Amino acid sequence: PRVAGSQLAMPIVLLCMGSEMLYVLEQRLHAQSISSIKSRRVIEDVLKTMFSRSFVTELFRPQSLYSTRAIKQIFVRLAHSSIMRLNEASMDKLYDLMLMGFKRQILCCKTPLEIFTLTNQHLETLLAILKHHTLDA
């Protein structure tokens, strides 16, 4: 059976926004002089949750886009899957930064190939972040 393109958009939304979240978290951890051990643990825990088999299986199931509220709740759970805790105001700011970055990037894409390239660049950057934090061990 054919699946509408919109039914396949969730992976792009969550992977790109999840990448944005990790960029901001990594920058804030560094700016606040959090120890490399704790920073590595936060990044690794969030990435492990984000790429867990159950999360990825659900993510790639053809489905309608989630509401903004439901997407935000996913990121609240992702952020809190580590030792890090964010208060509501901090999580709101983080989510706003993620959403603003994602919207800007998507609006700059003119073709489906550019959206694919954007998503692929995010995945490659996540791999580089993970390697960087693993090498710091």
User: What structural class results from the helix and strand content?
Assistant: mainly alpha
Determine Rg (CA atoms, Å): 15 Å
- Which geometry do the CA atoms define? globular
Q: What's the total helix number? A: 6
The fraction of residues in strands falls at: under 5%
Largest sheet: none
Oligomer: single chain
Unreliable residue stretches = none
Which whole number gives the mean pLDDT? 92
DSSP E strands, number: 0
Helix proportion: over 70%
Amino- and carboxy-terminal Cα gap: 47 Å
SSE series: HHHHHH
Structure report:
- The protein is mainly alpha-helical.
- 74% of the residues lie in helices and 0% in strands.
- The protein contains 6 helices and no strands.
- It starts with 9 loop residues before the first helix and ends with a helix.
Write the layout of secondary structure elements.
Blueprint: H1 10-31, H2 36-50, H3 53-59, H4 68-79, H5 88-108, H6 112-135
List the defining traits of the structure above.
mainly alpha; single chain; 137 residues
Q: In summary, what is this structure?
A:
The chain has 137 residues and is mainly α. The protein has helices at 10-31, 36-50, 53-59, 68-79, 88-108, 112-135.
